[in-house]
Every structure is written in structure tokens, then in C-alpha cells.
């Protein structure tokens, strides 16, 4: 650290030590004003007490308008839940919350609609047999719902009587009603789907979590009474009751899976009933067989009456959908060249990747950044200790000192330790002396003066405090004067700059830079392949679901409708595949930008570390052999005598060189060498390193020769003139080759265009590329420097301006022809559809799509 920074740290220690005793007022005020909220139970809970209740809830809770409640987009797993009940804490703390039934029915729908509660089942039929069978106890994670239920008069209370609100820590037996209803909408029967949809509209905003099998008494933390005045939910004074049996060591872990056991009951006509008060008295919507079509005389002989669809089996539907999704996943993964490799180097087959997404095994390790419970507990203890030790003025001085040491480039570990311990009297002096010793400066007198001044400040005696302030002030001024006596550093800086520039040239060598960025390439490639696998899996599921819908329609349709369904199915397949390709292309572009930033950040951060290490080496090692006679040549005798005296040197100046040398080391070590930022790194250097990594490493697990050629081509693009504006590696995953090289592949691309629509799209894209190429050639800003596998420069002939203009004219003609072909294909398609509708009994052979003329 520079001398000035060291002196400022002494200055901070001066004020922080003086005020270290004044800690209680500010620290306590800050602790009271910051609400802890749910995070009070994030780590191991403290012993249950009334302080827990105060940390959980503010004294006044603003209620929301019940008419404006909305279903949340996502379900947040709660750490605490609430339940309102008329029973007192003595009973609940002793027995917990038992299920209001015999506990044989886990159906969430029956519980919501009241069929399985004690008051349910009054209607005839199946619902009557479910009365009193529920195995669920309702809670909510939203305090507003507690007040809303009370204001809705769902409880029969005596005048002046108030219900109790219980604070509960959920365990794995707590299930989200919202998650369960969403799942039933996807996989339930038709009756369950409709009932779940209505239930979600009625109770989706209740934030309800149902406890399966009841709630154990040790999960109940506390109870309190509430009152609603105006639009504010207030806690009744002195109503808090803490459960002495609460399990303080238990971690909250509500179940995030849906509760799918049991069957559903249909809702009542008036929506959700009051819990344990009424029942849904009517059966829900019934499934009706589709009405048969009326046969007309014109097609009665050829058209079959569609068969009524059988009631679907949810498990069979799910199995069929999973099988179809697996088939489409393998097809799409093979076509797109998906290549996922494990950490052991084993390549995963598409079926293995699909099994991973289906939930049979984990593909990635758990998150590395999840804070363990011990760390949270340690942080909580550290904050408590900090509140005791900080004072009103000490907090400000201490914080400013930490800011300064973090903002000072070149600070060593000793500087950080000194800054963090400067608030402790005596200890700060010792750590500061250790930091100075690491810089090559040992001053026992200064350390003794610091310890004496701290002792005087801590004594509390006004005279002693004034003396301590005077000693610290004298130390500060003396060290500041010493910093002004430092000789010129220009010749040292010049020698250091020459050596650093030479080191940079070695650092930018392709082989060394390639070894540096290779881990980033490997990591990025693995993440990109995993992302591609996720996209393919998603669209495989879409294709499977679409195919299942098509099969269902075809089984119940006539031959004429079957032909139409097949065309619709073909169009839907084509759209889904096109959407997948677009998503993959967009992902490639994003991945290129991310890789560009990752490579640049890695190189830049490494350069910063190398610069700090080189500067430290230069200051400590290189100056040893430097002639130091110039150090005291410009000092007059009086200043030289004062310098030696204050630096504990000899009066005759025999050790002036050594003292000055230590001071020069201290100042040089605090300076920062120039390092290019991540945005300023030369594209050519990164390109050469990228090519070197591709040539020298076979372990990149690239996707056959296609990835190798792609990376090589874009590495070559980076070596062009710097006038081009693209990022260094931003186009790394761009599936299209360099526009100037597209000319060589135009004929092959024409042959690959299958349909008239494809031909038109290709012709327009080709026209845009040519227009861009012509603009670049006219500007004269294009140049190439391509390397072969041996690193030698090769020449690639560029098309002339006249050749590009000829290609552009041909592209315009291709667009006109493709538009005509597309219109003709559309007319033929409409004619085929009209023919199929008029004569459904005669199968029509579809005509092939038009192609571009060779």
C-alpha cells in the first residue's frame, strides 16, 4: 500500500479507537429498525420466546383489498405458514392440529369443495360416502388470508371473542394446493381437469398449503390474536403465546411436489364453500359422449359414422406421450448433432439424455452456491458481535477505512488484516506493524507510540485522551512528511514498463493464450450442448402431445376428415420443427456473445493478477541491484539529517540508501501496471489463440468435423482488419459461414432448398448477403489473413465487384422465380383441399412441391 494510504489508515484507527466504547445506542437502533421477516427462521432458530414473534411480524400489517387478490405466477415455498382457529393455545400446543375426519381421503379437490370434511357429504351418491374422511388440514402462507377468512364470517364466535392465529413451521407433509391443481389440470381425467380449473379460479390466490395427516404440536411456534381496524391488521396487545414444545432445531422443508392421491368431487354451483361449514351439494360436470353426425344423402354410402371416444386412461395417455416424446427427441437430437459428454469423457446417447430430462437421473451436480446452514449461523453470530463492538463514530471511521483499503490497488493481505482489525485497540497497531514489515519497513518506535496512544485513548481520562490524540496526530504528520521526502521514481517506472511490455508480448503468444482460454471453451461447450438438449427435449414433448391429439381426432373422424387432419398434422410438425431450429439459432447467437465475454473476462482477470505479481516482484527483487547513490544526491544536509533522524537512520547518512530504498519499494508496490480491459483486448490475439487451441487439443469434444471447421472459420474472421465492428468471438456459433465465402457454396445451397417457400427464403437471404458484400468491397475495408493447420499464411481469392454485382442480379431473378413458384404451389394446395372436400371417398395423391429450375 502507498505511504499515503498507510497514514490514512492510522488516521482511521485514531478515531475508531477513541469511540470504540460507544457501541450500544446506534447498533441497537439499527437492529430494531430493520425487520427480519421470514428470514428470522432461515437458519437454526433461537429459543422460542416473545422476541421471535416481534422479529416475525411488524406491529401493523396493511391488508390488501380482497376483491383485488390475484393468483400468483409462481409458488414460493414458505418458511412459516399460518392457521386461524377458535381453539385456544393450550389445546393446540398439547395436541397439535388433527385432521377433521377419519384420515382416509387425501384428495385435495374433495377437501377444497367440502366433500370430505365433517359437514360434507349431505348430497346423495358418491359424495355422501366421503363425509368426514379428509386427511388434510388447511394453512396459508399469506397473513392477509387469515384476516380475510375472519372478516368473511367463516367462524361462529361469541360477541367480543377473537380467533387465534397460529404460526407453524411446515415439514415435508405440507403440500401446495396451487401446485396440485396445476398438475391435475395437466394429467387428470376430464372431470378432474374441469373441477381443478374451477377450484384454481376460486382458491388460487389463497396461498393454501394443506398438511397431510395433521400438524404435530412441536411444529407450532406461537399463537396470537388479531383485530382489524379500518384497513389495518393489528395484533392484540399481550396476546402472544409461545409454544414451549416447539422444535427449535427443525428446518422448514415444505413439499414442492403435488399431492395426487385420491379422486375429485365436483364443485357446488356457488363456488368454494366455507371450510367445515357447508358442502358441495351437486355433482360436477359430467362427461358426455359426442353426438353422432347426421348423414346426408350425398355421402351416406361412403362416410362412416364416427365412433364415440372412449374415456381416456390418464396413465396410458401419459405413457404414450412419454414414448412419443422420446422418439421425437432422438430424431431431433440426431438431426441437430447434439453431443453431450460427461465429466468422465463418456458421450451420452440421446436416450440417456432424454431419460435425464424425464427425471430418472441427475445430469448436473447441485448448485455450488447454496449457503450451508453453518455459514448462515456463523454470519448471524458475526453480525451480533459486530453490533456490540461498533460505536457511533467508530462505525463511520471503520467503514471508511475498509472502503479505502478495498479501493486501493495493490493492497496486500496484511493491509486487509490491518484495516479489519484497526477498530480493536492495540491489535490494530500490531497488525499495522506486520503489514509494514511485509512491505520491507520495520519501525518498533512507531508501533510502541501507537500502543501508547491507544492505551491513553482507552483510559477515558480527558487529559490522557488528549495526549493520545496528540501522539497519533504527530505520527500522522511525521509519516506524511516522510512520504514527501521520497525521491523520484521515474527511472524505476521506466525500467518496470519496459520489462512489463516484454512480458506482455510473451503472454500474448498463441500457445500460451490458447492454454489459458481452453478451460473456458470446454466449459462453454458443455453448457451450450446442455442448453440445446433442453430445447430439443421441450419440442420433442410438444411433438408428442400434438401427435397424440392427431391420433385421437383421426380415430373418431371419417375418411374425408382424416385427410384434412393429416394435412394439419403435417403443417403443425413443420411449424414445430421450424420453431425448434429458430430457438437453436437464437441460442447459438446468445452463446457466442456469452463466450466472447467469458474469454475476455478470463484473459483480463489473468492479466490483472499477472500485473500485480510482476509489480510485486519488481519492487522486491529487481531494486536490490539498483545503484542507489541518486537517492540522496538531491537532498540538502538539513533535510537529509531530518530524514535519517525521523526514519531511525544514522545521523551521518550511512544507511540513507537502505531507508530510501524501502520507501521506494512501498510506493512502487502500491501502483498498478497498465492492463487492457476486457473490451480492449485485441481480436487478432484471441483469434490466434483460438486457432491454436483447436489445432493442439483433441479433447475439446467438438461435434465431429463440423464444429472444428466452424470454430476455425470464425477464428480466421477475427484476424481481419480491426475496422470491422463485430465482437471478437460473438459470431463463434453463427451457423452461417463468412459472407465472402458464401459465393463458393451457392450452388450447393440451391440444391438443398426443397420447397418453393425454402427457395424464396434462401433467395432473399442470398440477396441481402450480396448487398452487404458489395458495400464492404466498395469501402475497401476487407482483408484476410488465413492460416493453415501448420500456421502458415494462405491466400483466398476474393470475388471482384463485377462478380458480386452479377450474383446480385441473378439473385433478383431467383426471387422473382421463387415467388411465382410459391404462388403456384399455394394454388395447387387449395385445389387439392377443394377436391378432397367434394370427393372424400376418392383418395387424392398429393403432387410434389415445385423446385427451383436448375
Explained architecture:
The chain has 854 residues and is mostly helical. The chain has 4 domains: 3-23 and 390-484, no CATH class; 51-242, Heat-Labile Enterotoxin, subunit A (Heat-Labile Enterotoxin, Chain A, Alpha-Beta Complex); 490-735, no CATH class; 736-854, no CATH class. It contains 27 helices and 13 strands. A hairpin with a 2-residue loop joins β7 (220-229) and β8 (232-235). The two termini are 74 Å apart.
Task: Give a short synopsis of this structure.
The protein has 854 residues and is mainly alpha-helical. It folds into four domains: 3-23 and 390-484, no CATH class; 51-242, Heat-Labile Enterotoxin, Chain A (Alpha-Beta Complex), CATH 3.90.210.10; 490-735, no CATH class; 736-854, no CATH class. 53% of the residues lie in helices and 6% in strands.
Please tag this protein with its features.
854 residues; Borpert_toxA; NAD+ poly-ADP-ribosyltransferase activity; 53% helix; 3-stranded antiparallel β-sheet; mainly alpha; disordered C terminus; disordered N terminus; single chain; Heat-Labile Enterotoxin, Chain A; 27 helices; 6-stranded antiparallel β-sheet
Amino acid at each position: 500500500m502507498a505511504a499515503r494510504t498507510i497514514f490514512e489508515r492510522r488516521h482511521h484507527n485514531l478515531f475508531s479507537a477513541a469511540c470504540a466504547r460507544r457501541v450500544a445506542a446506534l447498533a441497537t437502533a439499527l437492529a430494531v429498525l430493520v425487520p427480519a421477516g421470514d428470514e428470522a427462521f432461515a437458519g437454526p432458530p433461537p429459543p422460542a420466546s416473545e422476541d421471535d414473534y416481534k422479529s416475525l411480524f411488524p406491529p401493523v400489517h396493511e391488508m390488501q383489498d380482497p376483491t383485488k387478490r390475484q393468483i400468483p405466477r409462481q409458488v414460493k415455498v414458505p418458511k412459516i405458514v399460518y392457521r386461524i382457529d377458535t381453539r385456544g393455545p393450550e389445546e393446540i400446543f398439547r395436541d397439535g392440529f388433527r385432521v377433521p375426519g377419519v384420515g382416509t381421503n387425501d384428495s385435495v379437490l374433495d377437501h377444497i369443495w367440502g366433500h370430505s370434511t365433517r359437514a360434507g357429504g349431505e348430497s346423495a351418491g358418491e359424495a355422501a360416502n366421503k363425509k368426514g374422511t379428509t386427511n388434510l388440514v388447511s394453512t396459508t402462507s399469506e397473513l392477509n388470508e387469515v384476516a380475510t377468512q375472519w372478516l368473511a364470517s367463516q367462524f361462529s364466535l361469541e360477541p367480543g371473542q377473537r380467533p387465534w392465529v397460529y404460526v407453524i413451521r411446515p415439514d415435508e407433509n405440507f403440500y401446495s394446493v396451487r401446485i396440485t391443481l396445476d398438475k391435475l389440470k395437466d394429467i387428470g381425467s376430464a372431470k378432474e381437469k374441469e373441477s381443478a380449473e374451477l377450484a384454481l379460479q376460486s382458491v388460487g390466490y389463497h396461498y393454501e398449503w394443506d398438511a397431510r395427516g395433521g400438524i404435530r404440536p412441536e411444529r407450532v411456534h406461537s399463537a396470537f390474536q388479531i383485530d382489524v381496524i379500518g384497513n389495518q391488521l393489528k395484533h392484540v396487545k399481550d396476546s402472544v403465546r409461545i409454544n414451549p414444545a416447539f422444535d427449535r432445531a427443525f428446518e422448514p422443508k415444505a413439499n414442492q411436489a403435488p399431492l395426487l392421491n385420491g379422486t375429485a368431487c365436483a364443485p357446488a354451483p356457488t363456488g368454494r364453500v366455507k371450510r367445515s361449514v357447508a358442502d358441495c351439494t351437486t355433482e360436477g360436470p359430467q362427461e358426455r359422449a359426442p353426438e353422432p353426425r347426421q348423414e346426408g344423402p350425398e355421402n351416406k354410402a361412403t362416410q362412416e359414422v364416427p365412433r364415440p371416444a372412449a374415456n381416456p386412461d390418464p396413465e396410458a395417455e401419459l405413457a404414450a406421450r412419454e414414448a412419443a416424446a422420446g422418439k421425437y427427441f432422438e430424431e431431433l437430437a440426431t438431426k441437430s448433432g447434439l453431443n453431450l459428454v460427461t465429466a468422465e469423457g463418456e458421450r451420452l446417447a440421446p436416450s440417456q439424455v432424454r431419460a435425464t430430462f424425464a427425471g430418472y437421473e441427475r445430469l448436473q451436480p447441485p448448485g455450488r452456491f447454496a449457503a450451508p446452514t453453518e455459514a448462515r449461523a456463523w454470519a448471524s453470530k458475526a453480525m451480533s458481535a459486530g453490533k456490540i463492538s461498533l460505536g457511533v463514530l467508530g462505525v463511520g471511521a471503520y467503514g471508511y477505512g475498509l472502503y479505502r483499503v478495498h479501493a486501493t490497488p495493490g493492497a496486500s493481505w496484511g493491509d486487509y488484516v490491518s484495516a479489519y482489525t484497526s477498530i480493536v485497540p492495540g491489535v490494530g497497531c500490531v497488525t499495522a506493524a506486520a503489514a509494514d514489515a511485509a512491505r520491507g519497513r520495520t519501525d518498533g518506535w512507531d508501533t510502541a507510540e501507537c500502543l501508547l496512544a491507544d492505551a491513553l485513548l482507552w483510559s477515558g481520562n480527558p487529559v490522557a485522551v488528549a495526549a493520545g490524540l496528540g501522539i497519533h496526530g504527530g505520527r500522522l504528520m511525521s509519516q506524511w512528511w516522510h512520504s514527501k521526502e521520497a525521491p523520484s521514481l521515474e527511472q524505476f517506472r521506466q525500467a518496470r514498463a519496459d520489462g512489463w511490455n516484454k512480458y506482455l508480448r510473451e503472454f500474448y503468444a498463441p500457445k500460451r493464450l490458447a492454454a489459458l482460454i481452453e478451460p473456458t471453451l470446454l466449459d462453454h461447450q458443455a453448457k451450450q450442448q446442455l442448453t440445446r438438449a433442453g430445447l430439443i427435449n421441450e419440442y420433442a414433448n410438444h411433438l408428442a402431445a400434438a401427435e397424440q391429439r392427431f391420433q385421437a381426432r383421426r380415430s373418431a373422424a371419417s375418411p374425408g376428415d382424416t385427410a384434412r387432419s393429416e394435412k394439419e398434422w403435417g403443417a403443425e410438425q413443420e411449424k414445430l420443427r421450424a420453431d425448434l431450429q429458430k430457438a437453436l439459432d437464437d441460442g447459438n447467437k446468445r452463446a457466442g456473445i456469452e463466450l466472447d465475454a467469458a474469454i475476455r473476462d478470463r484473459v483480463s482477470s489473468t492479466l490483472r493478477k499477472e500485473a500485480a505479481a510482476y509489480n510485486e516482484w519488481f519492487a522486491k527483487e529487481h531494486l536490490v541491484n539498483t545503484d542507489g547513490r541518486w537517492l540522496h544526491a538531491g537532498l540538502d544536509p538539513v533535510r537529509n539529517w531530518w530524514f535519517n533522524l525521523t526514519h531511525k537512520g544514522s545521523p551521518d547518512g550511512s544507511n540513507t540508501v537502505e531507508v530510501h530504498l524501502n520507501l521506494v519499494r512501498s510506493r512502487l508496490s502500491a501502483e498498478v501496471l497498465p492492463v487492457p480491459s476486457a473490451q480492449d483486448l485485441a481480436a487478432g490475439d484471441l483469434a490466434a489463440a483460438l486457432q491454436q487451441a483447436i489445432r493442439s487439443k483433441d479433447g475439446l469434444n467438438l461435434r465431429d468435423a463440423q464444429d472444428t471447421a466452424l470454430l476455425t472459420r470464425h477464428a480466421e474472421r477475427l484476424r481481419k482488419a480491426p475496422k470491422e465492428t463485430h465482437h471478437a468471438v460473438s459470431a463463434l456459433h453463427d451457423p452461417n459461414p463468412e459472407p465472402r465465402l458464401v459465393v463458393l457454396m451457392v450452388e450447393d445451397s440451391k440444391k438443398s432448398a426443397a420447397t418453393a417457400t425454402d427457395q424464396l427464403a434462401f433467395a432473399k437471404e442470398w440477396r441481402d448477403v450480396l448487398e452487404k458484400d458489395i458495400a464492404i468491397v466498395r469501402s475497401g475495408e476487407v482483408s484476410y489473413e488465413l492460416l493453415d493447420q501448420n500456421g502458415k499464411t494462405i491466400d483466398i481469392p476474393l470475388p471482384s465487384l463485377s462478380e458480386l454485382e452479377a450474383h446480385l442480379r441473378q439473385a433478383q431473378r431467383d426471387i422473382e422465380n421463387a415467388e411465382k413458384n410459391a404462388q403456384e404451389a399455394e394454388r395447387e394446395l387449395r385445389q387439392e383441399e377443394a377436391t378432397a372436400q367434394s370427393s372424400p371417398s376418392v383418395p387424392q395423391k398429393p403432387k410434389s412441391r415445385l423446385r427451383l429450375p436448375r
